[in-house]
Each structure stands twice: as C-alpha cells, then as structure tokens.
Amino acid sequence: MFDTGTTGFMLVATSLVMLMTPGLAFFYGGLVGRKNVLAIMIQSFVSMGVTTILWYAFGYSLCFSGGQGAIIGNLDMAFMHGITPMTAFAGSSSIPLLVFFAYQMMFAQITPALITGAFTNRINFKAYLIFLVAWLIFVYFPLCHMVWGGGLMAAHGVLDFAGGIVVHATAGFAALASVFFVGKRKVADSGAHSIPLVALGTGLLWFGWYGFNAGSELRVDPVTALAFVNTDVAASFAAITWLFIAWSLEKKPKFVGLLTGSIAGLATITPAAGYVTTKAAVCIGILSSVICYMAVNMKNRLGWDDSLDVWGVHGVGGVTGVILLGVFGTTAVNAAGANGLWHGDALFFGKEVLAVTATAIYAFLFSYGCLFVINLFTPVKPDEKEEETGLDEAQHGETAYLH
C-alpha cells in the first residue's frame, strides 16, 4: 500500500529536522556567556517535549484537520483519533499519515525555540514555559493551518515551500517583540564563549536543513532534488557574501560572520527552495546576506538587545525569502508553484508580500501582548542578582563548566 522508498526518505527527513532543534541549542549556547549556556539550551530542548505533547493532544488536528479556507482547523483528530499505522496521508497516499504527523511535529518544535535567542539571559523559565504554550496555540497552529493545512492563505494562492511565513517570519518578529518587552540586560554579557560550539550548531542546522527543505516536497522527485541543491547553494553564497562584507567593513574575516551568513541564506531560501531555479537561489543567497547584514547593523545602531540576531537573521531573512519567492517563483521548475513578478505575475507577488507582512505584524503584536499578560501573573524578567549570578545557577542549579 505504501511506497517504502518514499516512506523511508520521509522518516530520514523527519529525523534531520528533529536534529535541528538540538543544533539550535548548541548554536545559541555557544553565542552566550559561560553563566547562561544551560539556560538557553534547555529552552530549545524543553520545546521538543512540550510541543510534542501539544501536537499529540490537539496541535496536529488544529493544523491539518478540517477548516478549509479558515483560520484554524478542528479537533476531529485530537489525541490522534482515527489515526492508525495503516492510515494514509491524504496529500500523498504513498506514505502513512503517521509519517506526516511526525514530520510536521518537528517543524512545530523548532519554531518557538528560534525565539529564545532574543531574550537570552533575561527571562524566567516559568514565564518561558507559559509563553511557549500560548505562542504555539495562538500563533504557530493558526499560521500552519492557514498556509499548509488548506486554510485562509492557501485558499488565496499564498505559497511557502518550507516555512518562510510559518516558521521564520513568525519566530523572527516574535523575537523582536520579546526584545522590546524584556528590554536590555542589566548585567553585561561577555558574549560568545565558545565559537566551536557555534560551529557545531551551525553544522547540525545546515545538515538538518536538507530534511527541512527537500523533505517538504513529501516525496522523491525532481523538485526534491531542486530544493536540496537550492538549499546548499543559497547557504554557501550567503556565507561567503557575509564573510567578505564583514571582512571589508570590519577589517578581519570573522568565523562567526561566516556561520551567521550561512544561517541567513538557509532561512531566506526556505520559502522558495522548491519553487525557484538554482540561478535564482544564487541571487537569493547573496541578497540574504546583504539585507540581513544591514538589518543586524541597524539593530546595533538602534541599541536593540537582540543579542543572537534572531530578528535580523530569521525574521528579516524569512520575510525577504517570501518576497523573493514572489519575484523569482516559476512554474517551469514546479508546476505546483506560481510565476512571480520576474515571470510576469504581479498578483502572486502582491499576495506573498501581503501574507508575510500580515504574519509579521500579528506575530509581533501577539507576542508582546502575551508577555505583558504573563508578567501580570509571574515575572517575565529575572532580577539583577539572578542576572549577575547567571541563570544556569540561579534558576536551574547547574553549571555548564566546572571551572
């Protein structure tokens, strides 16, 4: 009944996407000071557990059951009701529904974890857990349904191959709202304490991103290969572009800059990976570094304390990628896609711009409001003494290093 090759491929892709969340933990963990490594890493790992529980209980159902053309789905598949190992996925009968359930769950796990880099060193763990649950229910689940579950945006022809709208725009602008709400750190952080740890995290993210993008085709065909190649090409051009921009302006070739550039390229190609040519992916990779580098510089000039550049890389990168999909998209490489502005369809371009703009605004407003409400019941920000001690010891009673 099921195609064993496609099922096997999707299980591998699911595993690769799962690996991205620990990879993100390493990436973020290396970028913070020694006293806050575990505090930032646990926020990624706990997202894996909490999100899985919510996904099983009702998240998958809200995203992918019913609600055609609507903002949210229904609860018909809550607690995996009616799903057996032999239930086929309606979108591709060659794989079990369980595989799609698991694959999409990995996307849901990493998205709120991306936000955590914005409030590193200055959020209470209890407040983060509440925010995590609320954000998934009121931001991720509706956006996932509207774009990928046959909801409102999908019904109007909006495309997002692997998460420029659903993942990066939502997380990036939620991160910006978090920066504004929690404000600057009271105690100066020493900055990246382990660049090798950042490199390890980047490698795991880059590796996992092949499952993130190529797996989003949900089968093995030429578009799968296109998405895979476009992912690597965009990341590589972005990494080298960032390296040389930083080298020319900062006078030294920075390793962290190279790594950051690759992540910017990966985030930006994500919505377009299976809908554009490889030549367009080259342009997207180069533009992603130029635009995200400018965004990070602007953030620094304005004094926003987004220390791990979640907004500048993921938020701006995701929005840029969706807009560039509206420019470079072509049905010549994927009949299920659309022609963008470059190929004569200004309407599709307008839809993409409107969809990602509305998403960014909603994610920002909800996230700021959510933190405000949480703060009425439990403090969102730790006190200055906890910041001085470091959240690892103050909140978790653990330290990453003995000396």
Layout of helices and strands:
Blueprint (H helix, E strand, L loop, with lengths): L3 H28 L5 H28 L23 E2 L2 E5 H19 L9 H24 L3 H4 L8 H19 L12 H20 L7 H29 L4 H15 L8 H25 L7 H19 L17 H32 L6 H6 L1 H6 L7
Antiparallel strand pairs: 1-2
Helix pairs in contact: 1-2, 1-3, 1-7, 2-3, 2-4, 3-6, 4-6, 4-12, 6-11, 6-12, 7-8, 7-9, 8-9, 8-10, 9-10, 9-11, 10-11, 11-12
How far apart are the first and last residues' alpha carbons, in Å?
Answer: 57 Å
CATH architecture: Orthogonal Bundle
Strand and helix order? HHEEHHHHHHHHHHHH
Rounded Rg: 20 Å
CATH hierarchy class name: Mainly Alpha
How are the strands of the largest sheet arranged?
Answer: 1-2
**Average pLDDT, to the nearest integer?**
94
* Overall 3D shape: globular
Strand content: under 5%
Number of helices: 14
Helix content: 55-70%
The CATH topology label is: Ammonium transporter fold
Q: What is the oligomeric state here?
A: single chain
